[in-house]
Amino acid sequence: MFLPIQKVLKEAELKEIRDKLEGASFADGAATAGRQARRVKQNEQLARDAPLTKELGKIVSAALRRNAMFISATLPVKMTEPMFNRYAGGMRYGSHVDNAVMYQPTALRTDISVTLFLSEPSEYDGGELLVDEVAVRQKIKLPAGSAIIYPSTSLHRVEPVTRGARLASIVWVQSLVRDTSQRKILFDLDRATQSLTKKDPDSAEVQLLSASYHNLLRLWAEA
Fold this sequence. Notes:
Elements: E1 3-5, H1 11-22, E2 27-28, E3 41-42, E4 44-45, H2 51-65, H3 68-74, E5 76-79, E6 83-88, E7 92-96, E8 101-103, E9 107-109, E10 112-117, E11 124-126, E12 129-133, E13 136-140, E14 147-151, E15 156-158, E16 161-175, H4 180-199, H5 204-220
Antiparallel strand pairs: 1-14, 2-4, 3-7, 4-6, 5-16, 6-16, 7-15, 8-9, 10-14, 10-16, 11-16, 12-13, 12-15
Helix pairs in contact: 4-5
């Protein structure tokens, strides 16, 4: 499932992250790429074990976990610690698929990739995230503080940044429900249930939809 989520970060959180990244020391991002991706990865990122990465990562993780749409769409059982990267001066990330398993510190299956944009689109040229999804190429450049989620199985790339700098945070999610199409069904059911609940929380339709949601989740979940 391919889904943009607006305003994941509060304005104060976004400002704090940007202010602290302003003077941060970034290293070569290829150091953390897999063998295939390393050949096409040209960016900079904060060291994963740096105190600033841990500090800012807590803000991003908390923001994602309190976002109802993110939880409904991803059904997270595990999440990686957020990474922070920077693209400038022609940097790019060529077409690749994310590693199937990551270790932070224990094994995590990457079902869903999350890019949280930290720079406004007007602050840089290029830098679009291109995701190939079922014969359709999605082109994404969202406002600062907004996120995009997409299947980690998708081929994707970041176009060269030709002006300014593109800052973003990256997170991977292992979902309770491995299959993308099953997660989409559950997400749609949850949205429909929530919409009807606002009109008549005690209706038979709400009860039936809720029962169907939980029975499907019980059938598909890998706890």
